[in-house]
Specification:
The protein has helices spanning 12-22, 47-59, 72-83, 88-91, 102-117, 133-139, 159-169, 192-205, 227-235, 266-281, 290-300, 302-332, 340-344, 356-366, 386-396; strands spanning 29-30, 95-101, 122-127, 143-148, 150-151, 156-157, 175-179, 208-213, 239-244, 256-262, 349-351, 368-369, 375-377. It has 398 residues and is α/β, with parallel strands linked by helices. The chain has 2 domains: 12-46 and 304-395, Aspartate Aminotransferase, domain 1, CATH 3.90.1150.10; 65-300, Type I PLP-dependent aspartate aminotransferase-like (Major domain) (Aspartate Aminotransferase, domain 2), CATH 3.40.640. The strands form 4 sheets. It has a 7-stranded mixed beta sheet, sandwiched between helices. Strands 1-12 form a two-stranded parallel ribbon. Strands 5-6 form a two-stranded antiparallel ribbon. Strand 7 (175-179), helix 8 and strand 8 (208-213) form a beta-alpha-beta unit. The radius of gyration is 21 Å and the shape is globular. It binds 4'-deoxy-4'-aminopyridoxal-5'-phosphate (PMP). The site of 4'-deoxy-4'-aminopyridoxal-5'-phosphate has 13 residues, from helix 5.
Length: 398
């Protein structure tokens, strides 16, 4: 029976990783996969995480199931982490979080819920968006449409085109996917004014916002990065927020994330929560425990939390310094192209605007690996490779 299957390409990035591993050149550079790396190119365990894990191993007394919605301590902390502890939604009991297997799991549950709640409606995503958004949504049976977002010529946002397109095409009851910060793959985010304008439009048109928050803390800070999200959450009646702790706790393989549900009232929240539990039960039944316990252990202990915050600040500062370091090197090499995009774009990713030809040339001639769409992971840069990368990019930047 399996002969009826066609070979389906899982994700171009995964084959890129494979090609990188087999490349024998000692000075090869991996700017592909979106994980944070330190200056030495390693993906280390954070100190606060390590300490929390040691406590968990010592204290854990049972491996009983955690329940469909996951770890209670973790679930109680997430709304405060996303919105700030004094956000009105928390006081009004209009938000509840469910622990999910990573941000991906949260998106999958969100899409299954949308299919149940708004069959026949459209989910709007940016052009481009994270490579997994459209497959997750279409596999859940949703109709997906795209709005303009990134403008190649300026390597920035085309906000007017985005709004015009949505105004002309989005229908009441449709869902609108936004990236909370550090847009993947472009690194181009909405300004706070633009978040306000989108919020007005969402209210006016009667859309359901679905916000993907995978990189909170990786641009300007845990609070600053979600100021737009917080504004929107305070004004809309309903919302879904898919968040990930993979990046801000560097626990990628522990599959830790949350789906936060915002409803009009406490009663509707209970019904929405039950709907989420229903789709989870027949999917993966229950999430794993470990990563969520790590996150809640760190956040609940003021000393550990301080260590984690300092480590996250170091990660963020390193990304910022790699951005400005790359830009100043390109300027020193007299590159004529405007390189301001390198410091304007936020988070780990930068969309270079490189063509498939450029990407191919950089890989074959210089051993520099990046995603096929020209996205580079800034965290793949370090003191050992930044000069060589700048020199190679300078050869191709138009
Ligand atoms: N959304 C975006 C935009 C992402 O970049 C990622 C991770 N690459 C995710 C969601 C999923 O994160 P996780 O690894 O926690 O499933």
């Amino acid at each position: 029976m399996f002969e009826t299957l066609n070979l389906r390409k899982v994700d171009n990035l995964l084959s890129l990783m494979q090609a990188f591993r087999t490349d024998q050149r000692p000075d090869k550079v991996d700017l592909g996969v979106g994980v944070y790396k330190n200056d030495a190119g390693d993906v280390p365990v954070m100190r606060a995480v390590k300490e929390a894990e040691q406590r968990l191993v010592a204290d854990e007394e049972s491996k009983n199931y955690v329940g469909i919605a996951g770890d209670a301590g973790f679930r109680e902390l997430i709304p405060g982490l996303l919105l700030g502890a004094d956000h009105a939604l928390i006081g009004e009991s209009r938000i509840a979080s469910i622990q999910t297997p990573g941000g991906t799991g949260a998106l999958k549950v969100a899409c299954d819920m949308l299919q149940a709640i708004t069959p026949g409606k459209t989910l709007w995503v940016s052009t481009p968006t994270w490579a997994n958004h459209i497959p997750i949504a279409t596999d859940a049976g949703l109709t997906v449409a795209q709005y303009p977002y990134f403008r190649g010529e300026t390597r920035g946002l085309e906000f007017d085109a985005m709004m015009e397109h949505l105004r002309a095409n989005a229908q009441s009851g449709d869902a609108l996917m936004l990236h909370a910060c550090c847009h993947n793959p472009t690194g181009v985010d909405l300004s706070s004014e633009q978040w306000k304008a989108v919020t007005d439009f969402v209210l006016d048109r009667g859309l359901l916002p679905v916000v993907d928050c995978a990189y909170q803390g990786l641009a300007d800070g845990m609070d600053a990065d979600v100021a737009g999200l917080r504004h929107m959450a305070a004004r809309v009646p309903e919302m879904l927020i898919a968040s990930s702790n993979s990046k801000n706790f560097a626990i990628y393989r522990e599959r830790t994330g949350a789906l936060s549900l915002v409803a009009k009232s406490k009663i509707e929240l209970a019904a929405t929560f039950a709907a989420a539990e229903t789709v989870i039960r027949s999917n993966y039944s229950m999430p794993p425990s470990h990563g969520a316990r790590v996150v809640s252990t760190v956040l609940q202990d003021s000393a550990l939390r301080k260590i984690w915050e300092a480590e996250l600040t170091d990660m963020r500062d390193r990304i910022t310094s790699m951005r400005s370091g790359l830009r100043s090197r390109l300027q020193a090499l007299d590159v004529e192209a405007d390189t301001s995009f390198l410091t304007d774009q936020r988070g780990m990713f930068t969309y270079t605007g490189f063509t498939p030809d450029d990407v191919h040339w950089l890989r074959e001639m210089r051993g520099i690996y990046m995603a096929g769409d020209g996205r580079i992971n800034i965290a793949g840069l370090g003191s050992a490779n930044i000069d060589a990368v700048a020199e190679a990019l300078a050869a191709r930047l138009a």
